Each structure stands twice: as C-alpha cells, then as structure tokens.
Amino acid sequence: MLINFFFDVKKAKIPATIREFLMLVEAMDKRLVMYNIDDFYYLSRAALVKDEKYFDRYDRVFGAFFKGIEDMTTALFDGDIPEEWLLLQAEKLFSEEDKAAIEAMGGWEKLMQELRKRLEEQKERHQGGNRWIGTAGTSPFGTGGYNPEGVAIGQRRRRQGRALKVWDRRDYKNYDDNVQIGIRNIQLALRRLREFARVGEDDELDLDETIRNTAHNAGLLDIVMRPERRNRVKVLMFFDVGGSMDDHIRVCEELFSAARTEFKHLEYYYFHNFTYEFMWRDNRRRHEQRTPTWDVINTYPADYKVIFVGDAFMSPYEITYKGGSVEHWNEEPGLLWAQRMLDQWPNAIWLNPRPETRWEHTPSTMIVKEVMANRMFPLSIDGLDRGLRLLTAA
Amino acid sequence: MSEMRFTGTDNYVATEDLMLAVNASITLERPLLVKGEPGTGKTMLAEEVASALGTQLITWHIKSTTKAQHGLYEYDAVSRLRDSQLGDERVKDIRNYIDRGKLWDAFTSDEKVVLLIDEIDKADIEFPNDLLQELDRMEFFVYETGETVKAQVRPIVIITSNNEKELPDAFLRRCFFHYIRFPDPQTMQDIVDVHYPGIKKELVRESMEAFFNMREVPGLKKKPSTSELLDWLKLLMAEDIPPEALRGKDGNKTIPPLYGALLKNEQDVHLFERLIFMARREGR
Question: Of these four, A26, A37, A257, B33, which has the most CB atoms within 10 Å of its CB?
Fold first, then answer.
C-alpha cells in the first residue's frame, strides 16, 4: 500500500527518492506514528517533501490516495473550481478597453460578487467567448494577468458537509511556484556568470609558498599571503523604466535584487523606452541628476558585461529618428546611441520581459533584436540561462 | 535511547506537525531542516528542543564566508611556524595547532547534544554538499593527525534556512523537512499568552486584528512577523496604550500607534499610510 502511495507521489512530479521513502518506512517501523492518519500525514510529508512549494501537490496526492479515489482528476474536479481554468492557458493580453470594461463594471468588489454568481451558473470548462469564466476570453473574469489577486475563487466554494482534513485545506497552494520566476531561481541562473580569480587584497595564507620560502630562508619564517578566490565578473545593467514597463516591475525588481547579491561589481542605470544621450541612477530624481551616456561609456571599460532590460515595445520612430523620443528632443537617434554602447561593450545581451512569441509582431522589438545581433532573450529562467551562457562564453 | 520526545515547552508553542517532525528526526537520528518566514521561531526551536530534553545546545552560525571545513577543524599553520622559530616544545605535536570546530565538539560530546546549524543558506551554494558525508555518517577524517573523529552519541541536528538560496537535492534527501507556516490567529493567541501571560485580553484582541489586517495589505515588501508582533505588544504594554486607541473612533480605520515596530521598510510605511488615508476618505 505504501509503495503505491510512493508511486503516486512520484507521478505527481514531487521529487521524492527511494532513500526518502526508506526513511519513511524506517520511521513507521520505529512506531513513530500509530493508527493516526493525521500523524502519518505529517510524518510522511516531513520525510518525502523537501520544499514547501510541493506541499500543495502533496496534499492533493495524499487526499486522493487515502480517499480511495483512483483517479486524481476526479478528486480535483469534483466540487472545486480548478485553479487551472483561470490560469492563462492561451496567451492573450488584455487591452486598455478590457481594463476599462472591468472598471465600468464597478471595480473589484463588485467584480468578485459577480464572479461568484457566474461560477454558480457555470457547469463546464470554458475557453474563449465573452461571458463564461475560463481562459483567454474577454469576459472580465479569469483574466489571470490582469489583477491576479482575485483569482483565489477555487477555494471559496467548499462542498458543504464535508469534514476538512488538513491536506484538504490546501494551505500551501500559494507556495507552488511551478511557473514563476523567483529571486532564488534567478540567483541560481546568475551563478553561471562567474569568473573566479585571485585579485585584490592579500588575505589568505598561502601555506605551500610559505613553507617553500621559509626553507629558502634557511628556516627563518617567511609568510606569504595571497588574495582569496573571488568572483570578479563585472556587470553593467541598463533598465528601461516607466510606461509599458510598469507591467513588469515585479520581475525586474527580482532580477535586480538577485543581481545585487550575486555580483560584487554591479553598476546600473535607468533609461526610458530607449537609449539616448543621458541616463540616470535614481528614478525619483531622474530629471535633476542625469548622467550623459558618453560619460557612462567612458567610465566603464570594455571588460564589463552588459545586460539591457527592457520590453523594446514602442514606436519604431523612437529608435531610428532624431527627435523620436517621447520625452525630449534628441539630437541623435537612439539607435546610434545603442550602437555606440555596443561598440564599447561587445559582451551584451538584451532581456525582454515580454514573451518571445510576441516579439515578431512588434517592429520596434525586431529592430532592437537586430541591433543586438539577435542576442535578445526573454526574461524567464530559460531565457536568462541562454543569455548568460552567451555572456559567459564570450 | 529513543525515549527522548519533544512536546513543546512552557515558552514555545509547537504545532502538532512540528512536534512530529522533531521527534522523527530525534528517533531516526537524521538532521531536521527547518524553513519558514523570518521571525517564525526557527532558531528558537533548537534552543527549546535543547532545554526540553535537558541537553546542551551547540550553535554554529553560518556567514557568507563560512566554509564547511570551519565546522570540522582548522589547522593553525601560522602559529606553528611562529612557535618553531621560538623553539617552543609544543611545536612537535601537530595536535596543539588544530582548532576544533562546532561539529567536532558536537561529535565528541559524551551525551546527546543539539547541534544547530543556523541559516545554512547564507553560505556558498556548495556548502551543504561539503557537509553531506559528515552529517550522514557523523564522522570525519583529520588529515593532519590521521585520526577519525566519530560521533559516540549522534547529536540532534537542526538546520535552519531562510530560503535565500536553493539547497542541493542530495542534501535535502538526507533530512527531514519542516516548513514553519505563519501561525493562524488561534496559534498566535497561544504564542502571545505564552510570552505575556498577564496581558489584557482586550489589548491582544485589538492588536491581533490590526496585525492580521496589516499582513493582508497587498504589496508590502516585508510583512510583519511573529517576533515583530511580540515586540509591538511589549511596546504597547510599556507605553500603556489603551486597547481603544488601536481602533479608530466610530470604527473608522486608523494608523495603529507605534506601528514602526511592525513595518520596517520605508516604502511599506508610505504605502500603508496612503492606504489608510484613502480608506478614511472613502469612509466619510
């Protein structure tokens, strides 16, 4: 029986191993828990699951197995509105009109009420269309991307008369971050960009050299110190802020904080939409404290690795024409400035928070991609990985 | 040997699942990895387990520069070289220059001790891998003297992590795992009772409400945690703030007094003040 349960756990893609399973069996053998399913639940979870993000999945497997339900999907779809319905399955961004439509419905509170009402009516899964809840529709519900806060409806409607066991409560649902890009994932990806070298202050005893020198010195102590091995990669980051980037603030913040802890030599500047003749370091004082781009180019030597972060989503004129900037009159086209920067730092990539599939429909994105010699990557774990691989190899 | 059992202490509220995880790790003599939001009592757990079982606690605080070797032993070559210049007798025995680490201390103890490896995620990402064998077999080899240090009595190992770095799978496989969830209001009430037995019920109720409301505020960078609630209560008691002050006049929302103890990030404070301000304006 336990073995079947273990296989179910494996089937749910929870990374448990035989070693951990044997640990559980050993614990059972030592009579740690007796005839109490709650205790067994806690024990098996402590032994088999090693990350809270899998707790929710474990709860579901556990619930299904110990209710004697063979097919997990039955358990999932019976009684609850599956969260999956509401996740973005087909990608579709909601336009300003859609957002306005939601506002027109009377704001979020009203929306939630309406949402529950429609849930009562809805019988089956639905995709597209404009009334029912599902994915990729234009109904104000299930938008997923727009206002994801309200999507927790699956849990509000428990069947009545059903005693809730611990695993049925599914307290850990929010920790399941299958699709999300989080700070630690970014950090792990950033580790790729490491160049170890012994530079800087001598702070480590070089034992071999000390012994050798002492021997040469006829036994008189001669201590040799050397610098510790450190990551000396130098990174310069340019962030696009404001306008269309507002939708991607969170992921950019995560990238920034991950980069800050990973790289000792990290410099960063901000720009709006595209690179022009000045940049700034402090967004609150962007109009008073600007740094001419020439100064930036002259300050950081060519061995800096450069990462641009921006959605490259604008009118093509903003890139290719002088005076194209939406904020000021630029004497020289942004494209020229981008070219100058790339001449200075040949090791550069562009990270784009918009999904890769949408790039080819945006002329400005394609122009930037061409300028970057195709070194544009989506700001996802996979894209980050590909981009950094390229930066490391160079 | 497996008679030892942890059932919480007078000043630590342990949930059922936490007790089970601790007991599993004691019985099976495997390390227990504890994760959770900051301020949920991860480090305190080890202290309380030690005091509940009446054993010694050995704490190894991990920093970003800590190496696995530091926990085993360090060979002080410089001192030895210096002594050799001075003709010191001690120099003939290399053992005089081996500084024992925390793991060595824990392994050689005659009785069962609790070894706390605190904030393991602070160290380099390879750090846990370097300790695999040592924690698994509870023994290690000292190259300088050729001896093997082996645990007479396997210590209870509790490891805490703040999730700053992902831990390697091979390491995770060898541990029991427990995630300390943020306490629900009932558990929180128990925790407050344990810490401040004489506190006014009214004050607790109002402050808990304000506290849980604050945790609900969307977009906070750092949500207030248990230890912050306890600090806040202490302040409220010290300043003798009446419970009514926590609730605004005619049930209106108000900024709780001394909220600096709860929100520690400037942006969070701004956000919170703005939200309260907006809520008030709507209420009118």
Answer: B33
